[in-house]
């Protein structure tokens, strides 16, 4: 099957209400297991401690809110969303720490 058809067909099935189990990001099936964009996750790292929804992470990562698109993710995309968000926060924390260490010390 042509790669373009593999991507377009699930989208068409979603838009025609033939299937509601389509991942928002990869167009894969979520029939076995899915994560809602409104589900919350608790993220705890040395540089981060917060609870937020996948929709909030999307917003931080620049993924536009679009109610007409699927509001669920497959497990792979949910994991990638969390890892992408954590990486962005790690980079921000690292920049802040380096900027603080470069400031001249007054004695």
Automatic annotation (TrEMBL):
Judging by the UniProt lineage, the source's domain of life is Eukaryota
Q: Which InterPro entries match?
A: Znf_AD
The UniProt entry, under SUPFAM superfamilies, shows: Glucocorticoid receptor-like (DNA-binding domain)
Identify the GO cellular component terms for this protein: nucleus
Q: Which residues form the ZAD domain?
A: 21-101
Q: Which UniProt keywords apply?
A: Metal-binding, Zinc, Zinc-finger
- One Pfam match, by short name? zf-AD
Single GO molecular-function term? zinc ion binding
Its protein name is ZAD domain-containing protein
